[in-house]
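Invent a record, attention on tokens:
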Amino acid sequence: MSDSQLDCPKCDGTLETKTHEEISVQRCNSCYGLLIDPEMMDKMNDEWMVEKFFDVGPASVGRKYDKIDDIECPLCKIEMTRLTDPEQTHIWIETCPLCYRVFLDAGEYTDLKHHTFTDLFERFLKGKRFKD
């Protein structure tokens, strides 16, 4: 199976390769989650407004899939590690301990990139994620 035909780790969708300039990510065609290589994440963080090309799913869809947290890396087929962003504890990130790819639900990349005052309120509404 090629990278462009990977199964989404959170829903029944398929991860499709999406490219903008020199940046490529895999995005689910159903829940809009993003599987991002660490090198691409660095490039995305340096690119102005790149989230408009990749993180196109509504945050409400992403929140729906927050409840699914025991997921496997679509490439390595091993359990991804759950992390909480230290500054925005309402953002929960899954990362592969082998290939280091990151999976973000719809809306989470945009939220990570644009730390706002409303993040303070979301932290209290959603709470912190604790490992089982």
